[in-house]
């Protein structure tokens, strides 16, 4: 199958290699541009960190003081980014925000002190709200933003118009919203009838309802499960 990979460039290249190893053809079209914030400092009273994206660490590298803080990550890719940023004590929930919340609850007493969520400017707010409800002193430090692109590239536009794209991989709600808006603005809904829109979760699928195409939802919020969903439907 010819698969459109819509995640930011660095992650998209890795996903494309996995798809091609399975015999698919990958077309990369990052719908979000990740813009790191200016370098930030982690407050000295912080007792732990949390992150839901590998991008969280680009503007927040560790210091000698912060490198020993426990870092709770939503998945293995985010955990690897934390390691590369110099943090030493990292745990992965290998799941979604709900599972990350439960991991933090098991590992950190709510009375231990301030927990800092390294996050993007555009986010659902679910993690910090979950933690506050559970009694944590949870703050947010924005370390990046994700800007939507204004138009599909010519290659993607032509591939969608000539119906050579068989599937689209969508990893985030914001990316799904960007895809839906770009399809609408380009008048491409009639070209999506045969396309599989493969989504990381039900929340990612929501902005695509009524857009056309067949919506498939991964049973688990991981890249492996998403690709398995694509392959199982091939």
Provide a short characterization of the protein structure:
The protein is α/β, with parallel strands linked by helices and 234 residues long. It is 33% helix and 23% strand.
Question: How would you describe this structure in keywords?
Answer:
Rossmann fold; 5-stranded parallel β-sheet; 11 strands; alpha/beta; elongated
Report the β-strand fraction as a percent range: 15-25%
Largest sheet: 6 strands, mixed
Number of strands: 11
Assembly state here? single chain
- What would CATH call the class of the largest domain? Alpha Beta
Low-confidence stretches: none
Mind telling me which CATH architecture of the largest domain this is? 3-Layer(aba) Sandwich
Structural class: alpha/beta
**Total helical segments:** 8
> Mean pLDDT score, rounded?
93
Q: What is the H-and-E element order?
A: EHEEEEHEHEHEHEHEHEH
Which radius of gyration do the C-alpha atoms yield? Answer: 19 Å
| Major sheet strand order | 3-8-7-4-5-6
Number of domains: 2
- Gross morphology is elongated
CATH topology of the largest domain: Rossmann fold
- How far is the first residue's CA from the last residue's CA? 8 Å
Estimate the helix proportion, in percent.
Answer: 25-40%
Describe the overall structure.
The longest helix is centred in the C-terminal third of the chain and has 14 residues, at 173-186. The chain is 33% helix and 23% strand. The chain is of the alpha/beta class. The protein has a 6-stranded mixed β-sheet, with helices on both faces. A 5-stranded parallel β-sheet has the order 2-1-9-10-11. It contains 8 helices and 11 strands. The protein starts with a strand and ends with a helix. The protein has 2 domains: 2-31 and 149-233, Rossmann fold; 34-146, 3-Layer(aba) Sandwich (Rossmann fold), CATH 3.40.50.10090. α3 (97-107) runs parallel beside α4 (126-133).
């Amino acid at each position: 199958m010819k698969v459109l990979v819509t995640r930011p460039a660095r992650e998209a290249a890795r996903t494309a290699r996995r798809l091609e190893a399975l015999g698919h053809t990958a077309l990369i079209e990052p719908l979000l541009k990740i813009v790191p914030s200016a370098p930030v400092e982690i407050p000295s009273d912080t007792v732990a960190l949390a992150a839901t994206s590998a991008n969280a660490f680009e503007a927040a590298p560790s210091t000698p003081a912060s490198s020993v803080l426990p870092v709770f990550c939503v998945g293995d890719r985010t955990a690897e980014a934390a390691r590369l940023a110099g943090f030493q004590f990292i745990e992965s929930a290998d799941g979604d925000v709900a599972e990350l919340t439960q991991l933090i609850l098991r590992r950190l007493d709510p009375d231990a002190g301030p927990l800092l969520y390294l996050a993007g400017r555009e986010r659902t707010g679910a993690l910090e709200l979950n933690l506050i409800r559970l009694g944590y002193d949870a703050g947010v430090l924005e370390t990046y933003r994700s800007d939507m692109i204004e138009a599909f590239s010519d290659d993607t536009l032509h591939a969608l118009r000539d119906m050579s794209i068989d599937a689209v991989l969508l990893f985030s709600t914001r990316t799904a919203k960007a895809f839906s808006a770009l399809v609408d603005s380009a008048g491409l809904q009639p070209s999506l009838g045969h396309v599989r829109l493969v989504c990381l979760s039900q929340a990612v699928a929501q902005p695509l309802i009524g857009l056309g195409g067949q919506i498939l939802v991964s049973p688990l919020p991981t890249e492996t499960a998403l690709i398995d969903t694509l392959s199982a439907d091939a």
